[in-house]
Amino acid sequence: MPIRKTYIVEHLDPELGPWSELEYTAIAKETARAGGTFVLSSLPAQLASKLPAKLTDVEAFKAETRGVEEMYPGEERKRVCLLDPRADKDINPDDKALFDTFLFGGILGDDPPRDRTGELRVKGFEGRRLGPVQMTTDTAVRVTRMVIDEQFTLNMIPYLDHPDLKINEHESTEMPFRYVKGDDEKPVMPEGMVDLIKKDADKSIDELL
Question: What is the CB neighbour count within 10 angstroms for residue 142?
Fold first, then answer.
């Protein structure tokens, strides 16, 4: 029987914006299909009590108000992998045997990237890199799952870097992130994300985040 893996995003913000809601729902559904668990940790109690049903209704999803340092004290942290752009090693298929839980700072979608992952790094979690190009949070979890569950190496995964998203006949916007390339040759994005970006085309990506 395969070992169930847990994917944790530290949600350090007091609100849940529409961009994050779409990302987290996509992560939850994909993790459910893979037989894993998706946890949002460090949630403010007020936010935890009002998360949208399309997220909380996914069986694989768990809302957690505790931070990861409380969830994983002492020696338990050795089985938790922090996805960290400043780590010494890239994540690889052999890490499946070393780690049960994969931890994301929840800010991988920031543009430009902020080192809030550093707040987790100093808590003693071992780190792994996902490569040199900034990813959205759902892409980071998707790539990690492909490496751990499907045993891809990072250089085997098909990527699209900074793709142009067509807004209308005359306008397009460049997405400042790396995505997994889908079977349709388009970037894999959460359901509803393209519509959200088009609807708010007058806003910068930073404002949407």
Answer: 21
